[in-house]
Amino acid sequence: MKKTLYLSLLLILPAALAAQTNKTRTWNATTMVFEARPATLRLAPHVTTTIRLPEPINSVILGDSNLFQAEYSANEPLLVFAKPITPNIAQTNLVISTTRGRQFVLLLRSIGASADEGESGVDLLVTCQAAGVRFIDDTFAAALISETVNLRSAALPLVRPDGSDLTSEIEGGLALDEIVSRQQQQTIDKWNGDRIHVGIGQVREHGSRLIVSFSVINPASEAIELVPPQVQLAGQTKAGIFRSAQWTTVQQLAVNTYRISHRRLDPGKRADGVVIFERPSIKQSTETLLLQIADSAAVDQPVLAPINFRQTNFVEKDHE
C-alpha cells in the first residue's frame, strides 16, 4: 500500500512542477538592436524595459503616449526607460536619436496583462549598437529653441462671437475644428525654431487639461510633413563656468487629442492646430511644458516651443 502511494507521488510531483514552470513568464535578459535597422521589443504591464544607447540621447519620439511611456534624464544620458501604461495589448513606435546623429527605430509591443504566462520572453535590457564608424560634428544641437514666446500677445479666447464658451464641447470633439479655424485668423509675433517655425497661441484650462492652439510655418525650400504633436515636461538647469543650460529631466505627457489643418506643408505655407493634454498638477520651478513639433524626415531635430503652465490672457490679432 505504501509503495503504491510513494509511486503515485513520484508521478504527480514532477507533473505539477512542470506545470508550475510553464506558467512562469520567461524574460529576455539582454536584447541587441542595431542602428538604422528597425527592431521589435516585447514589453509587459508593470515592467520597465531599459534601453541603453551608445552615446548621449538627443531626443525621444513616441508614437502614442497614451499607450506607452518613455523617459530619459540628463543624469543618465545613455538610458531610456520604456513601459506600457495600459493593461491591454498595445503597439506603437519609438524613435531615439543621439547627439551624434544616430537613429534607432523600435516597435514597442505590449503583451497585455492577460497574456499567457508561458508566452515568449519580455525584453528587460535592450542594448543599441552603432552601425560602423560615422563622422558627425559633436556640437549637434540638443534642442532648437531660438526665441521666447510672448504668450499674452498670442492668446485667443475659446468663445464664439455670441459669447458662448467652446470648452463645453471639447469632450465630444465638436469644437476642435472651430478652434483651429480661429487660430488661422491670428498673427503670431514670435516663432520658435529654425528649420520649422512654431508659434503658441491660446492656452486655455479645461478641468485638469490644457487646450493649446499653435501654428507652424515651413520656411524651407522643400515641402515637409508634420508628425503628430507631442508634449514634454522638461527640467533645465545652468551649470559650469559659462552657465550653459542642461536638460535634467524629460517626461512625455499623454496627449488626449489634437487637430491640425494640414500635415503636409509646401515652402512658405502655414498650418494651424490645437492639442489637448493632461496638465501635471505640480512642477518644479526649473521645469517647462514644451510643445514638440517635427518633420517626418527629421524627427531627431524637433522644435520645442514653451507652453504656459496656466491659462493665458486674451489679445486678439488678425492674421492677414
Polypeptide structure, described:
Helices cover 9% and strands 42% of the residues. By secondary structure, the protein is mostly beta strands. The strands form four sheets. A nine-stranded mixed beta sheet has the order 1-9-3-6-5-14-13-18-19, with no helix packed on it. 32% of the residues are buried. The chain has two domains: 21-129, Immunoglobulin-like (Sandwich); 166-307, Immunoglobulin-like (Sandwich).
What string gives the helices and strands in order? HEEEEEEEEEHEEEEEEEEEE
CATH architecture of the largest domain: Sandwich
Radius of gyration: 24 Å
Strand-pairing-aware structural class: mainly beta
CATH class category name of the largest domain: Mainly Beta
Q: What separation lies between the terminal Cα atoms? A: 99 Å
Which outline best applies?
A: globular
Number of helices, where a helix is a run of at least 4 consecutive DSSP H or I residues: 2
Which band does the percent of strand residues land in? 35-45%
Task: Tell how many strands the DSSP assignment holds.
Answer: 19
Low-confidence stretches: 17-23, 133-158
Biggest β-sheet, characterized?
9 strands, mixed
Strand adjacency order, main sheet: 1-9-3-6-5-14-13-18-19
- CATH T-level fold name of the largest domain: Immunoglobulin-like
